[in-house]
Amino acid sequence: MTGTQAQSSDNAQQPDGLIIAAETRRMIWNAVAVDGDRVFVAGPRWAGVNGPAIALIDGKDGLIPYPDASWNAWQPGSDVTKTFVNVNAIRRDDHNGLWVIDTGSPTFGGDPLPGAAKAVRIDLATNRIGRIYPLGPRVALPGSYVDDIRFHGDHAYLTDAGRAGLIVLDLRSGEARRVLDGAPSVTAPTGRPIVMDGEIVRMPDGSPLRVNSDPLEVSPDGRYLYFGSLHGPWSRIETRLLDDPGISASELASNVEAWADLPPVGGTAMAPDGTLYFTDLANEALKKRAPDGTITTVVQYPGLHWVDAPALAGGFIWLPVPQLDRLPLFHKGTSKVVWPIRLYRYKLDAQAN
């Protein structure tokens, strides 16, 4: 990985403490996970680049397909159950596992291919697939975009950014359930647009981009799941209610509470003390929300343009910068991406992780 200090294309001075950890012209990195000295990155197929779905950065600038080449070799018409069709998130758990969230849809806004949507756990000690959790047609619906994952005990929680809702996954049985389908707490509001470079991000038909349930975190004590659409605001609900399949949909909905009125965010990470780090898209900034609700700016820099899915590891917060709004999809087929794509890291206070 390169430690080169550099300036972005707008010549703004890079802030002290912000380090370029790696860069590439092959992938659009929207996710990162760290295991000791190993750094993993991932990016969605619909971004239109030619790198692997998941890569291990080899310490120079190379990208090694992970866990192997075959899992990264999906082509239209090939097996979707043992390959990555479209990776949207990777996440390291507390038991030496790397989780991969495959939306199952190779196109943005498309339907998951039959049998393709899944959560895959890789054993980091052996670099082999430990278990595959299929997200069947009752969970990954037409229009679903399974987005990200968090854990508590024997359960995992996933967001669906396409068909608004949450997914509860029993890690022992493998059974998955949809909850809060179409609820206001998981649905993108119409009055909070995503603004980047001073303009509303729009779909090819000209309508504002709306992303349903996307960011989520579990409180350090495991009591609450915090969640919301990408646009905000955030809500919370007790995990014990989510974990109980006997709780009715109406009772579950009645127990959703307002939590934090955050702006549109690219991604979040929660520290052990309950501090929520989030990337403020419009302001190209990393901010933090203290447990008492106070919000402060950690670092602001034009190079942090649409930071997605940060990760806390080794005393740093790792910040992939995919520049998603600059992809051709959102600009009538013309790319506005400023190459190279970069992964930054920023040193945090000792208590952060």
What structural keywords apply?
353 residues; mainly beta; four-stranded antiparallel β-sheet; 2 helices; globular; disordered N terminus
Distance between the termini: 22 Å
Rg result: 19 Å
SS summary, helix count: 2
Query: Could you tell me the strand content as a percent range?
Result: 35-45%
Kindly state the number of beta strands.
26
What's the average pLDDT?
94
Structural class: mainly beta
Shape, principal axes of CA atoms: globular
Give the strand order of the largest sheet, numbering strands 1, 2, ... along the chain: 1-26-25-24
Outline the structure in words.
Helices cover 3% and strands 38% of the residues. It has helices spanning 239-243, 249-254, and strands at residues 18-24, 31-35, 38-42, 54-57, 63-65, 87-92, 97-102, 118-123, 128-134, 146-152, 155-160, 165-170, 176-179, 195-196, 199-200, 213-218, 224-229, 234-238, 257-260, 265-270, 276-280, 285-289, 295-300, 311-313, 316-321, 341-347. The chain contains 2 helices and 26 strands. It is globular and about 55 Å long. Mean pLDDT is 94; it is low at 1-9. The chain is mainly beta.
